[in-house]
Amino acid sequence: MQDKLQALQMFIRVAQLGSFTRAGASLGLSKTHVSNVVQQLEQHLGCRLLHRTTRRVSLTQDGQLCYDRSLLLLDEYQELENLFQQQSSQVSGVLRLDMSTGMARHILMPQLPDFMQQYPNIRLEVSSTDRKVDLVAEGFDCVIRVGSVGDEGLVARKLAQLPMRNLASPAYISRFGMPQNLADLAQHQLVHYVSVLGQHNSYFEYTEHGQEKTLSMPGMVTVNNADAYTAACLAGLGIIQAPVIGAAAYLQSGALLDILPQYRCAPMPVWLLYPHRRHVSRRLQAFIQWFEQQLQQYLQAFQ
């Protein structure tokens, strides 16, 4: 029984990644082993599940049917296991996550020993990047994103709203002066943040009378990374607009100043995304509940 379930898991991962090599790497197995197991599964079922070429592996018509039913079957099996995992020490397995570097550095990692003490048999694999990962294709159990999310066929759960701050360094303010209103920003510089270099520059965003508005500003520097964004501000290269996560320590130390508090941009939503399933594993349920609590506790100081 367990061997067949493992074969279905390997088949699902190959179908998701379109490659035996990448599927093997994500599972910690060799390409040859994964290929042999899937071939044995095809022989057992009496049909071809995958089209194989030198460049790509794709599902056959029978393979698509098998893939859909296998997802349901593994969900049912996970639910069966969950019925008998009532204690936190019994919740086990690998949980693969992705989140921004700031979220990992300031919220997840400092509190992670508490989670590991509660769930000693869960192993975490944490990816931290500004890149928008493909949750399904790259084999993540969940991702945590800040900002808007599109319709990606995923379950999206809103965890919180991140308050924003307008920030500048004392050296920058000494050089350009403290802006008192929007008109003053014509004499100031904005550090521009874009997801891909070459895109249109960003704007100074603010909320006025309940409406979100933007103001075009010049800038000396454009970056596509959150760490570089903050570093540019610390170096006196311009004004940035950033979530309180990550900015709090700099504000407390005086390394950055909170400017134009009457013209802050709207809070940014924090989303937890995971694949659409009828049942969610207990380890993912445990992490979602725990992380949401940590995030809310962290943000209480800024409410």
Question: Secondary-structure map with pairings?
Answer:
Layout lengths: L1 H16 L2 H8 L3 H15 L4 E3 L4 E3 L1 H22 L10 E7 L1 H18 L3 E7 L13 E5 L7 E9 L1 E5 L1 H7 L15 E2 L10 E5 L2 E5 L6 E2 L2 H9 L5 E4 H10 L3 E2 L9 E8 L6 H18 L4
Parallel strand pairs: 3-4, 3-5, 8-11
Antiparallel strand pairs: 1-2, 5-14, 6-14, 7-12, 7-13, 9-10
Helix pairs in contact: 1-2, 1-3, 1-4, 2-3, 5-9
Sequence of strands across the biggest β-sheet: 4-3-5-14-6
Our estimate of the beta-strand percent is 15-25%
Q: What would the principal axes of the Cα set say about the shape?
A: elongated
Topology order in helix (H) and strand (E) letters: HHHEEHEHEEEEHEEEEHEHEEH
Span from first to last CA?
52 Å
Structural class given helices, strands, pairing?
alpha/beta
**Got a strand count?**
14
> How many strands, which pairing sense, and closed or not: the largest β-sheet?
5 strands, mixed
Q: Give the count of helical stretches.
A: 9
Estimated helix fraction? 40-55%
Radius of gyration: 24 Å
Task: Report the mean per-residue pLDDT as an integer.
Answer: 86
Low-confidence stretches: none
Structural features, described:
The protein has 303 residues and is an alpha/beta fold. The protein contains 9 helices and 14 strands. A 5-stranded mixed sheet has the order 4-3-5-14-6, covered by helices on one side. Helix 1 (2-17) crosses helix 2 (20-27), helix 1 (2-17) packs across helix 3 (31-45) and helix 2 (20-27) packs across helix 3. The longest helix is centred in the first third of the chain and has 22 residues, at 61-82.
